[in-house]
Amino acid sequence: MDIDVLRRAPLFASLDDQAFGALTEELTEVDLSRGSTLFHEGDPGDQLYFIISGKIKLGRTAPDGRESLVAIMGPGELFGEMALFDPSPRSTSATAVSETRLAGLKHENLKKVIERSPDVSAQLLQALARRLRRTNESLADLVFSDVPGRVAKALLDLADRFGRPATDGILVAHELTQEELAQLVGASRETVNKALAEFVQRGWIRLEARAVVILDLQRLKQRSR
Amino acid sequence: MDIDVLRRAPLFASLDDQAFGALTEELTEVDLSRGSTLFHEGDPGDQLYFIISGKIKLGRTAPDGRESLVAIMGPGELFGEMALFDPSPRSTSATAVSETRLAGLKHENLKKVIERSPDVSAQLLQALARRLRRTNESLADLVFSDVPGRVAKALLDLADRFGRPATDGILVAHELTQEELAQLVGASRETVNKALAEFVQRGWIRLEARAVVILDLQRLKQRSR
DNA sequence: TCAGGTACGTTAGGTCGCTCACACACGGGT
DNA sequence: ACCCGTGTGTGAGCGACCTAACGTACCTGA
């Protein structure tokens, strides 16, 4: 397993090599292809996961089948930890957005790590606090901004996390379909498509297959407020 | 200071009497009257707070002045902890919804408590995980449900946390104005008013001054899905 | 006790974004 | 090479909710 990503993860930064070595013994590797689901909403859960490569979408399904995405998680990030501290069934489902490799860690093993090095729980607190902050932000956006604004914001967020400099802008290989992007910003696919078309029209972005190139970061930021 | 509420708080359940005694030495009492603000969005923050009595609304303000409430916190609950683990300015403002008494605890002192008894950080993790779960829930509701549905859900949530049995139903003395209730569910005051009027019409609730009596819990639950 | 602020109730009109509907473009499998 | 499924682009129509604008009922303090 490629443990480089994990070694660099802030969560384990405080571990010495020996403790880290012991940890890696406990990890289970999981590989997912696009569209396959790791767990469903309501499942019991006793593991948390690290993303080694690829992307995972965390989402909820309404009784009528509509979906809403809570977050897109990428390499180096972790998820599925909530079921551990607050022992309840999974509150979201987790599905691969692209070819994805994960490292799973059982609750009991995490506990062992925490006992050895309390810094880890400080890191976990920080990770959770950050997530809560982001979610509160999204909540406010949903109330304050219109769909184009939310789309702009989502693109900027994805750019921040997955963007790479390209010749004429920032390449954001988000791997999401417009349908998924729509579920992420809480809007219909059609409306999101129109918002994207408008941005293209204005020369702010360029569309590629499951990717976007941001050409005018400033204007996009302006629109996202 | 009335420390009964604190002694019963799960966060401190694991402390022995001596440790708890030491902790109370570090607490600062704060009293707020309705409408006065403890901190604003963007302020630096080095304290977390326990609610001894009363209620606090946590909210965000849009550039144009509109407000959105992230949560209503009541007796026994804590808030303002995010700024500690994830050292950034306050992400929300905190304002008293009613006459409120708080106990403030500085970051450094919390650290001391955690060092002595690591169970406290487990409790903190649980509290954060629960909050994150709730916020994700709200996020999904905002997308899936219409305004009446969200109002119903908010009433049920408030009933769960602040409700008391009354002769003909559950008395929920939420202390919120309809404007605040509207900000909590992400809608306009007018629309919330209409939803409430409709519920009254149907005999599901009865309105009182800054309070609601839930008469037909079943129907209200039905409507909230 | 009166004045003025604050909260509540209700209406009318406009609009953003949803649903529905369809056409096209692409890509992978037989 | 050809489907056929999946994803993308676009238009028409409609409806939930917002804004704007009032009148009324309180409560509070001078």
From TrEMBL, chains A, B:
Highest taxon of source: Bacteria
Claim: Endoplasmic reticulum is one of the keywords in the record: no
Residue stretches making up the Cyclic nucleotide-binding domain: 11-131
Key words, A-Z: DNA-binding, Transcription, Transcription regulation
Record keyword Transmembrane present: no
SMART domains for this protein: cNMP, HTH_CRP
A Pfam family reported for this protein in Swiss-Prot or TrEMBL: cNMP_binding
Matches recorded under InterPro entries: cNMP-bd_dom, cNMP-bd_dom_sf, Env_Response_Regulators, HTH_CRP, RmlC-like_jellyroll, WH-like_DNA-bd_sf, WH_DNA-bd_sf
Every HTH crp-type domain range: 145-218
Protein name: Crp/Fnr family transcriptional regulator
Organism: Kocuria aegyptia
Lineage of origin: Bacteria, Bacillati, Actinomycetota, Actinomycetes, Micrococcales
